[in-house]
Amino acid sequence: MRDLKHLIYFEDLLQEANNELVRKGKEDGKLALGYTCYFMPEVLMDLPGCFSVRLRAPKCSSPDMATYYMSSRTCHYGRSLFERALEGGFNFLDAQLATETCTVTCRFQEHLQRMPDVINNATFKTSFSDVPFKKNENSVNHYEKQLQAHVLDFLRDEYGLDTSDEAILKAIEQHNEVCRIINEIGDYRKLDNPTITGYEFAVITLVSMACPKYLVIDKLRETLEELKTREPDAKPNYRVKVLLAGSENDDPEFTKLIESCGGLVVCDRYCYGAVEARTPIEVQEGETPLRAIARHYLMNSQCTRFMEQKDMRQRKQKIADLAKEYKADGIIVASNKFCEYWSYERVIDTVVLQRDFGYPVCSIEKEYINSASGQLRTRFQAFVESVELKKIQEAK
Q1: Model pTM?
Q2: What is residue 377's predicted lDDT score, i.e. its pLDDT?
Q3: In the predicted model, what is the mean pLDDT of residues 200-228?
Q4: CA-based angle 97:368:40, to the nearest 5?
Q5: Potential cystine with 330: which of 115, 167, 275, 387 (Cβ 3.0-4.6 Å)?
Q6: Distance between CA atoms of 60 and 286, rounded to whole angstroms?
Q7: What is the pLDDT, as a whole number, of residue 212?
Q8: Which stretches of the chain are assigned E, i.e. beta strand?
Q9: Please, where are the H alpha helices in 188-264?
Q10: Which helix (H) or strand (E) holds 173?
């Protein structure tokens, strides 16, 4: 297929957290607000006068200093973030807003609080919000109060930002426009012969999370227009289609590795994927914008921290429904080593998705950075061959 015009530029933006557009946003006088979890609503960090940056630590393969503080028994992702902070890679941040969700990112936040000299920025402050473990009206009430106290009031009192309903509605409008563009781009993955690869889509999605939206949205629109006339390869260069599910994953190279083995990734159901983060926010009649955001982020989430049986079953059904919608032939479930929630979920998914829904499943435990790419390649090649053989047998 013809190369996407902005892909190389997007790839360059993902090489560091303090990328070109983040620096431009700072030059425009806006505050850079970091976050690590879906439950810290990025829409509230894109209010007028600030922009959100979902933190990553690209190319961090040996978090030795962070391991001294956080131990080797914690997820590589959290350690990599703290390693990058110790290296000075997050000094551009004006604030870091965290949630009591993923344990290791909480530890990352606590170290930033207890070691104030790590972030070399005089304006830098941190804030924590609690997130309920259940999905009901009481939970939404609690979550809304947390977002009011620890996000909106924090941003207003500490930085003088406009947190009015009008400002929130403006941020929702921008958020929904980004969601619309990303989702329309993602629809081209549903074609019998998709006109966008999983790697390209992963890059595009990550850019929309790691850069100020007002600076990248025009290039996202241009990419969508480009895809409307992009022709697929005459002969598909993949052997099977797969859905990738799992824990935190902000490395497009992991998707590229899967696709180099013949498995086209047509859908992403992981923490940094579009399915979780790029659903438009609907403000219902008579509802305040903050209430709509609290309800949206809590009730729509498929996070594995919700452990009631009905939620667990719903997550399996959701993955199976996505696999059907995107015409996936198999499912890859990947969790980061020492990931508290997904270590359990991955084991259950491996059994249930195959037993109850008939999808072949490849179960992978990986590090944050693909240091064992040779072993992973062998696993993916074997999985692709087995799925391809299954398709041939079913076609007879």
Answers
A1: 0.95
A2: 93
A3: 98
A4: 20
A5: 387
A6: 47
A7: 98
A8: 31-35, 50-54, 95-99, 125-129, 240-246, 263-270, 330-336, 361-366
A9: 198-210, 213-227, 252-260
A10: helix 165-187
